[in-house]
Amino acid sequence: MSDSHTHQSHPEIAKRLKRAEGHLRSVVEMIESGRPCLDVAQQLHAVEKAIGQAKKTLIQDHLDHCLESTIGQLPRHQRQSIDEFKAITKYL
């Protein structure tokens, strides 16, 4: 698992996570300064969505590149299960 590899989406994922990290620091500051719970909850929701989207992008990219290169070309009847698996991961 120590193989180092980068996909085209990785820089964008890193940028998204760094932005989420900054927002999370802001949430901590909001809590410490006594900001209203609604404001804090809205910011937490934004952080959570950003991290979730980064995870989803990473998983989809992995499936599209790493899984595809591992399994290679498959006959149509074997391909259906892989395609269904890739489709269902969109609901993560």
UniProtKB/TrEMBL annotation:
<dbReference type="Pfam" id="PF02583">
    <property type="entry name" value="Trns_repr_metal"/>
</dbReference>
<protein>
    <submittedName>
        <fullName>Metal-sensing transcriptional repressor</fullName>
    </submittedName>
</protein>
<dbReference type="GO" id="GO:0046872">
    <property type="term" value="F:metal ion binding"/>
</dbReference>
<dbReference type="GO" id="GO:0003677">
    <property type="term" value="F:DNA binding"/>
</dbReference>
<dbReference type="InterPro" id="IPR038390">
    <property type="entry name" value="Metal_Tscrpt_repr_sf"/>
</dbReference>
<dbReference type="InterPro" id="IPR003735">
    <property type="entry name" value="Metal_Tscrpt_repr"/>
</dbReference>
<comment type="similarity">
    <text>Belongs to the FrmR/RcnR family.</text>
</comment>
<dbReference type="GO" id="GO:0045892">
    <property type="term" value="P:negative regulation of DNA-templated transcription"/>
</dbReference>
